[in-house]
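Kindly inspect what follows.
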Amino acid sequence: MLSLSPAVRIFLCTRITDMRCGFYRLAMLAETVLQEDPYSGHLFVFFNRRGDRCKVLYWDRTGFCLIYKCLEQGVFRLPCYGNEQERRKMDITDLSLILEGIELDAVHRRKRYTRVPVTGTV
């Protein structure tokens, strides 16, 4: 299980990615396709066409880190997003479930409290 700061956001690239891409090519995809700063410290998640490989890119203040998972059997099941967005935000729970082989479309979530950020002063 990954543990991250609540400030870290996770962006899923729904566009199929060539897993031969290295650090800088994935950083370029984060910038152009996902329209996010690859040096922000957020996680950028990429999957291949067959769905059996996944790369997670992030910047840790001194350099890029890359987590690469290759399944020996089966595929990752990504949720159905309906429209043709190339970028989706997700939380750490969703990413962990996908990496563990659990289909998000079949998961029933119970209602939980989430704090709404205050946008202005009174």
